[in-house]
Each structure stands twice: as C-alpha cells, then as structure tokens.
Amino acid sequence: MRFAIFSDTHSNLEALEAVLADACGRKCTHFVCLGDIVGYNANPHECVERIRELDCPVVKGNHDEQASLSLSTSDFNELAERAIQWTRDHLTEEDKQWLRELPLQKNVRDFTIVHATLDTPAQWGYVFNNLDAAASFTYQHTTACFFGHTHVPMVFIRDEGVRRERTDHIRIEPTKKYMINMGSVGQPRDGNWRAAYCIYDIENNLVEQLRVKYDLAGAQQKIIKAGLPRLLAERLALGR
Ligand code: ZN
C-alpha cells in the first residue's frame, strides 16, 4: 500500500495536478491531505473540488479555517490576509462548509495526520526545532505522524532524545517515533520552487520525500490576472 501524502496546496492547481500525476506514475494507491488547501494562489474552488474527488483523509489547516469563516479571527500578515479575503469571495458556500467541518487531526491506518502540532492543533503552532517537536511527540500515539504548516520538509526522530535528520529517505522503525513534514505543494519555502510531497510505503516501512516540476508560469499568470498581490506570484519562483 503506497500513500501519497501532501500538504499546503494553497490553491495552486498546477502544482496539485503535477503532484497527483507524479504520485499515480509512482503507483500510489491512496492519498492523504494535510490541509491548507486554500489561500495565497488563484484556484481555491478548483483545488477543493479536486481534493474532494480523491475522497481521501483530509485535516484542516489555518487558511482553510479562516477562508471558511465570514470574518477573520486570527492575525495573518497583510499578504496572507488579502489572499484570504479574495479566497472567501471565490469559494462556494458548499466549499466553505466542507472546509469548516474538516477535523484537526486524524488517524489513518497506523499513522497520525495533523496540519500544525499534536500538542495544540487548534492554536496552529509551528514545529521548526527539536523543542517544538518534543512537545508534539508527547501527544503522538503512533510511530509516525505527518504534519505540514511550515512549508519546509523536515524529519524529527525520537528515540533516547529528539533530533532532526536531513534525509529524503526515512526508514520507519517501530521502536522510535517520527514526525515527518513533506513540505508544501503550492508554496514551498525551502528555496526550491518545485512542488513537494512524500510517499509512505507501508509494507516496506519507507518514506520518500519528492519534488515535482509544475507549470510555474501558468500559476503565476493566474495570480496576477486575479488581482492578487504580485509578490505571491514572485515568491513561487524563489521557493520562499
Ligand atoms: Zn500553509
């Protein structure tokens, strides 16, 4: 059983389609979405529709939450806030209701999924270092947890202590615990513009981090045409 696990699509339909096609080419049979389906880019409705069609496990991200409310309740930076307001106007009521009803965390087979952290999933904290990871590990009852939110691929491992490992191939050992961030589909922030996702091969206990090229220029043109801030198009090329 091969799971394609992806996060932070952020309304980037070009990147989403490229990831789904790549995953199918690599014989993935199941999909899992870690939230932030909308926000920043120009195809919120289309991305919601495409992910709903997959009929797969999905958890809610902070942008999904804000876009599905009629007024913002959390402090986004100006760029994110402008995009969220635009996104609200380009989602149907049905899209918003579906986003609103998504769970914050979920168990899938033998692993856990969450957008932000397991210790306080509704407060949208970030796991960037060993200390952040240690807090989340306390609430992790499965060997592996997949999370998003930071848009930066990262792996934390807990055995005697908690450490971060830089690797694209992770072998899951049942005596340890793992927190795996596969980066972002629609707005990577690790200096690499390519869409990120991972494949979890359950029988072989292997997780592989992957990057996929997509129609970047097409996605950028849509952002500009939509009247969204130009910076949102420019940052896609930088992976920032
Ligand atoms: Zn995000």
Task: Write a brief caption for the model.
The protein is built from eight helices and eleven strands.
Structural account:
The model has no long low-confidence stretch (mean pLDDT 97). The protein is an alpha/beta fold. Strand 1, helix 1 (13-25) and strand 2 form a beta-alpha-beta unit. The strands form two sheets. Strands 3-4-5-9-6-7 form a six-stranded mixed beta sheet, with helices on one face. A five-stranded mixed beta sheet has the order 2-1-10-11-8. The protein is built from eight helices and eleven strands. 32% of the residues lie in helices and 22% in strands. It is globular, with a radius of gyration of 17 Å. The chain has a single domain, classed as Purple Acid Phosphatase, chain A, domain 2, CATH 3.60.21.10. The chain binds zinc ion (ZN). Zinc ion binds next to loops.
Secondary structure layout plus pairing:
Elements lengths: L1 E5 L6 H13 L4 E4 L10 H11 L7 H6 L10 H12 L3 H8 L4 E4 L2 E4 L15 H8 L6 E4 L6 E5 L3 E4 L3 E3 L5 E5 L13 E7 L4 E7 L3 H10 L4 H9 L2
Parallel strand pairs: 1-2, 4-5, 5-9
Antiparallel strand pairs: 1-10, 3-4, 6-7, 6-9, 8-11, 10-11
Helix pairs in contact: 7-8
The structure holds zinc ion.
Main β-sheet description: 6 strands, mixed
The H/E string reads EHEHHHHEEHEEEEEEEHH
CATH architecture: 4-Layer Sandwich
Number of strands: 11
Number of helices: 8
Portion of residues within helices: 25-40%
CATH first level: Alpha Beta
CATH topology: Purple Acid Phosphatase, chain A, domain 2
List descriptors.
240 residues, alpha/beta, Purple Acid Phosphatase, chain A, domain 2, six-stranded mixed β-sheet, 11 strands, 22% strand, globular, binds zinc ion
